[in-house]
Specification:
Layout: E1 4-8, E2 11-12, H1 19-34, E3 42-45, H2 47-56, H3 63-78, E4 91-97, E5 107-111, H4 115-125, H5 128-145, H6 151-164, H7 175-193, H8 201-215, H9 219-228, E6 236-242, E7 253-258, E8 270-275, H10 280-284, E9 290-291, H11 294-299, H12 309-312, H13 314-331, E10 335-342, E11 345-353, H14 358-370, H15 376-381, H16 389-392, E12 395-396, E13 404-407, E14 409-412, E15 415-421, H17 424-432, E16 437-441, H18 449-454, E17 457-460, H19 468-476, E18 480-482, E19 488-490, E20 495-498, E21 501-504, E22 508-512, E23 517-520, E24 525-526, H20 532-544, E25 548-553, H21 559-564, E26 570-574, H22 584-593, H23 597-621, E27 627-630, H24 644-654, H25 658-668, H26 680-685, H27 688-708, E28 714-718, H28 724-745, E29 752-757, H29 760-764, H30 766-772, E30 775-779, H31 780-788, H32 796-804, H33 818-835, E31 840-844, H34 851-860, E32 864-867, H35 872-883
Parallel strand pairs: 15-16, 16-17, 17-18, 25-26, 25-32, 26-27, 27-28, 28-29, 29-30, 30-31, 31-32
Antiparallel strand pairs: 1-2, 1-3, 3-6, 4-5, 4-6, 7-8, 7-10, 8-9, 10-11, 12-24, 13-23, 14-18, 15-22, 19-20, 20-21, 22-23
Helix pairs in contact: 4-5, 5-7, 6-7, 14-20, 20-35, 22-23, 23-27, 24-25, 27-28, 28-30, 30-33, 34-35
The protein binds adenosine-5'-diphosphate and magnesium ion (2 copies).
GO molecular function: ATP binding; kinase activity; metal ion binding; pyruvate, phosphate dikinase activity
Function: Catalyzes the reversible phosphorylation of pyruvate and phosphate.
Catalytic activity: pyruvate + phosphate + ATP = phosphoenolpyruvate + AMP + diphosphate + H(+)
Length: 884
């Protein structure tokens, strides 16, 4: 077992591929050293040392020997000796895990400094100010990270000394000033700890190594890993490296450089630097850093181009530019580089793949592929599909003033501001008059659709990310914050209140559905932009993927948008929302309340033409693409009037007594409606309903075929199936009505019949069921509910507890539970295909827009994924990545 890897002088033991054991920083330092770039020499302790340390609270026995050997070669490369009285070697001791955790763990600079070394360094450089400044920096950092003393005490001392000496800035401090500060620091430490600051450099090094190893488990780092889903057991490497001094003299500086502009992706050196400074000064905010290039200086507040590194350090700048180009070409990606100039000589201290905005990521991927730096597959793999979300929606201007009043779940992305409105009817009315509305509800239901579609955004105080509000809002591409539990909605008083603040109907609020935040007042927005690069990447993705990408829609009007986003068909058209529009809800209520066949018939006669019109519009818009229509799914009672007002209105219009409606509503009431009288079960108890829907579908197919000159092949889907006989029962109706319509119209319509698999029984009996149908579509929202036996409306709370306790890794309603629900899908596919080789399979439901779940779909050989319109671009890219 080897614990130490050396780098420097044009060679290295490690490579960039070894980030598992060397950490990202260490692996790249090794790589850069091998490339012959000016990297100060050093060595890296592997992440295994940290793993060992986390288990035993001590380092492995062999480590000390290996470190001593590495130190000898480091001394040879630098011509300096660690702990020597003259020409002593000074070190940085830096953390660095596999994944970047910026600023989360400890780094100590100038290690090896002590009372002797500082005098020698002052003499060697002829600059006491630099030497004593370096010493006091070391004492501060070491006291903070190793001795665990509060930095505030040191700042206080420094402040006092500065004042006493009349220095307004650190830059004005003289050698004697710093010397005095150091003396007070050392005195303070001895007082606090009862022993002097360690002068023995070996003790310093051991202390620093332990501190860096220990910083892996500091609360900050633990929280960061939890937030970013990083593995707890990996550990950090420790990089021990010869110091270079950006604070040495006026020809010295330190800075950070991006090889492209991180917001726009423009190919230009971009970054900041500080003359006469050490690394941490750039980020500390004590001094304002200066721009790198002269071009960048134009946009920079304050000084002009002459303050830029390009003008002030022309040689180092030219060299940095060359290094940046080389690193970019070598890694095939935009880099974020730390550098230091010591007396005019450039050193590179770190490089890593740079963070960039979603828009910049697209531009850079396209430009690098076009320039031949990477191939198109790489370009596709570079882009996080989920990052596209921010490009498809408006966002809050980052400079806007923020008055946060609550935080809910990020249910549907994008931001919106508008007036608070509590009633969907009022929302629709006000929107008609050109007002911008945020619909605020405790939760929403299908009858609120018109209000939701009129609103700019939706805010609910209850419900999770798969609640009705969330699913519908995502489908509509509207921002939604759900489950903002600290807000109280009072419908009667028409107020929204939280912690002593009350907002009334008409007040402005802003919601951010990407983050879940809710703000008081109207904020400025940034418009979404679909760049040419966006289109290019998606075209490349289309060429690379196997699975088709379809979309889920509720109303025909949404199809247009979905086509713009590249949807190749409809995987799920939910018909129930069509029944909530305009006067149709009344006919629907008449249907449900009907006691005689005549009543039922007349209701169906009202519903048929409107349903047919919807389907004609849909088929026309999707001409040439497959369209799957799901027969009525929700339980009946959802269609019944809810308020007294509505009850009276319905009674009047239908000319029946209120009591009758109330009685009927009572009989329809179910304890557990989600597992109740719904889906295919309704079709079987009221065959007139599927009959009407199927007739509408066939008649529309004929008509749309006539209008567009293209054959329409409807796919009819039955929800909540668990038995083969259920399918046979409804299929008989479909075949019969189909024959009738074809006979009446003289046209022929090709169609298929399939089922939504959302119950375990359908999956395990898929062999038999496949005999009776042509396709399976996995309704993974409901399937997750029924496989786990958890309700998606209530699971949010305990699932979070589960996640924090490490019992589940992710919310199974967001990322498909591959082991359980996925296994169910696999079983159904295998069984289904065993009787029908060409059985078509797809997935609808929220998972169809989630990249990790899409990867599973590709592996399982599904034919398509079908997601909400705004997820279509994400699914196109994710499907390509899964296929590569
Ligand atoms: P982080 O990961 O938090 O950025 P680093 O290990 O990169 O921590 O170090 C923090 C700062 O110290 C950086 O600005 C870096 O440039 C500087 N630094 C690290 N090693 C050296 C060195 N050998 N010589 C000079 N400065 C260094
Ligand atoms: Mg760094
Ligand atoms: Mg369902």
């Amino acid at each position: 077992q080897r614990y130490v890897y050396v780098f420097g002088a044009g060679e290295a033991d490690g490579t960039a591929e070894m980030s598992d054991i060397l950490g990202g920083k260490g692996a790249n330092l090794a790589e850069m050293a091998s490339l012959g770039l000016p990297v100060p020499p050093g060595f890296t302790l592997t992440t295994e040392v940290c793993q060992y340390f986390s288990r035993h609270r001590s380092v492995p026995d062999d480590l000390e020997d290996e470190v001593r050997k590495a130190m000898t070669s480091l001394e040879a490369m630098t011509g300096r000796r660690f702990g020597a009285a003259q020409h002593s070697l000074l070190l940085s001791v830096r953390s660095g895990a596999r994944a970047s955790m910026p600023g989360m763990m400890d780094t100590i600079l100038n290690l090896g400094m002590n009372d002797l070394a500082v005098e020698a360094l002052a003499e060697e450089t002829g600059d006491g100010r630099f030497a004593w400044d370096s010493y006091r920096r070391f004492i501060q950092m070491y006291s903070d990270t190793v001795l665990r003393l509060d930095l505030e005490f040191f700042e206080e001392i420094l402040e006092e000394e500065r004042e006493k000496r009349g220095r307004s800035e650190d830059m004005e401090m003289t050698a004697d000033d710093w010397k005095a500060v150091v003396a007070r620091y050392l005195e303070f430490i001895e007082e606090e700890l009862g022993e002097p600051f360690p002068q023995d450099v070996e003790i310093q090094l051991r202390g620093a190594i332990r501190a860096v190893l220990g910083s892996w488990m500091n609360p900050r780092a633990i929280a960061f890993r939890a937030l970013h889903g990083l593995q707890e057991q990996e550990g950090t490497a420790v990089n021990i490296q010869a110091m270079v001094f950006g604070n040495r003299d006026d020809r010295s500086a330190t800075g950070v450089c991006f090889t492209r502009e991180p917001n726009t992706g423009e190919k230009t050196l971009y970054g900041e630097y500080l003359p006469r400074a050490q690394g941490e000064d750039v980020v500390s905010g004590l001094r304002t850093p200066l721009p790198l290039s002269a071009q960048q200086a134009h946009g920079h507040s304050g000084n002009g181009a002459e303050c830029s590194m390009e003008v002030a350090f022309p040689d180092a700048y030219a060299e940095l530019k060359a290094v940046a180009g080389r690193l970019e070409a070598h890694y095939g990606d935009m880099q974020d580089i730390e550098f230091t100039i010591e007396s005019g000589q450039l050193y590179i201290l770190q490089t890593r793949a740079a963070k960039r905005s979603a828009g910049a990521a697209l531009r850079i991927a396209v430009e690098m592929a076009d320039a031949g730096l990477i191939d198109r597959d790489d370009a596709l793999l570079r882009i996080d599909p989920l990052s596209l979300v921010s490009l498809l929606h408006a966002s809050i201007d980052p400079n806007a003033e923020r008055d946060e009043i609550a935080r809910g779940l990020p249910a549907a992305p994008g931001a919106a501001c508008g007036q608070i409105v509590f009633s969907p009817d009022e929302a629709a009315e006000l929107a008609e008059r050109g007002k911008k509305i945020i619909l605020v509800r405790t939760e929403t239901s299908p009858e609120d659709i018109h209000g939701m579609s009129a609103a700019e955004g939706i805010l609910t105080t209850r419900g999770g990310t798969t609640s009705h509000a969330a699913v519908v809002a995502r489908g509509m591409g509207k921002p939604c914050v759900s489950g903002a539990g600290t807000l109280r909605v009072d419908y009667a008083a028409k107020t929204l209140s939280t912690m002593g603040r009350t907002f009334s109907e008409g007040d402005l609020i802003t919601i951010d559905g990407t983050s879940g935040e809710v703000f008081a007042g109207g904020m400025t927005m940034r418009k979404p932009q679909l760049s040419e690069d966006f289109q290019t990447i998606l075209q490349w993705a289309d060429a690379a993927r196997r699975m088709k990408v379809r979309t889920n829609i509720d109303v025909a009007g949404d199809a247009d948008l979905a086509r713009d986003f590249g949807a190749e068909g409809i995987g799920l058209c939910r018909t129930e929302h069509m029944f909530f529009e305009d006067g149709r809800i009344l006919a629907m209520r008449q249907l449900i309340l009907a006691e005689t066949d005549r009543d039922r018939e007349s209701a169906l006669l009202t519903l048929l033409p409107s349903q047919r019109d919807d389907f004609i519009e849909l088929f026309e818009q999707m001409a040439g693409f497959p369209v799957t229509i799901r027969l009525l799914d929700p339980p009946f009672h959802e269609f019944l009037p809810q308020s007294d007002e509505e009850l009276q209105e319905t009674a009047d219009l239908l000319n029946v007594p209120v009591e009758k409606i109330e009685f009927r509503a009572e009989t329809l009431l179910e304890t557990n409606p989600m597992l109740g009288h719904r889906g295919v079960r309704v079709a079987i108890s009221y065959p007139a309903i599927p009959e009407m829907q199927v007739r509408a579908i066939f008649e529309a197919a004929v008509e749309a075929g006539r209008r567009t000159g293209r054959q329409v092949k409807p796919e009819i889907m039955l929800p909540l199936v668990s038995l083969q006989r259920e399918v046979d029962f409804v299929r008989e109706i479909i075949d019969r009505v189909g024959r009738e319509v074809m006979k009446e119209t003289g046209a022929s319509v090709e169609y298929t019949v399939g089922i939504l698999i959302e119950l375990p029984r359908a999956a395990v009996r898929a062999r038999l069921i496949a005999e009776s149908c042509d396709f399976f579509s996995f309704g993974t929202n409901d399937l997750t509910q029924t496989v786990f036996g958890i309700s998606r409306d209530d699971a949010a709370q305990f699932l979070e507890t589960y996640r924090q306790a490490g019992i589940v890794e992710a919310n199974p309603f967001i990322t498909l539970d591959v082991e359980g629900v996925g296994e169910m899908i696999k079983i159904a596919c295998e069984k289904g295909r065993s009787v029908k080789a060409d059985l078509m399979t797809g997935i609808c439901g929220e998972h169809a827009g989630d990249p990790k779940s899409i990867e599973f779909c590709e592996q399982t050989g599904l034919d398509y994924v079908s997601c909400s319109p705004f997820r279509v671009p994400i699914a196109r890219l994710a499907a390509a990545q899964a296929a590569l």
